Amino acid sequence: MKKHILVLGAGFGGLELSTVLSEAFGDGVDVTLIDKGDAFTFGYSKLDVMFGRTTLDAVRLPYKNFVKPGVRLLQETITLVDPVARRVTTDRGTHEADFLVVALGADYDFDATPGLADATEFYTVAGAARLGKILPTFTKGHVLVGVCGAPFKCPPAPSEAALMMHDYLTTRGLRGACEITLILPLETPVPPSPETSRALLAAFAERNITFVADREVRSIDTQRRVATIDDGREFPYDLFLGVPAHRAPKILEDSGMTEDGYVPVKPKTLETRFPDVYAVGDCARQGTAKAGYFAEGAARAVATALIARLQNKEAPVTHAGTGSCYIEFGAGLVGRVDVDFFSNPDHPTGTYHEPSVAMRADKEHFGSSRRARWFGL
Ligand SMILES: Cc1cc2nc3c(=O)[nH]c(=O)nc-3n(C[C@H](O)[C@H](O)[C@H](O)COP(=O)(O)OP(=O)(O)OC[C@H]3O[C@@H](n4cnc5c(N)ncnc54)[C@H](O)[C@@H]3O)c2cc1C
Question: What are the tens digits of pLDDT across the range 32-46?
Answer without folding.
Answer: 999 999 999 999 999
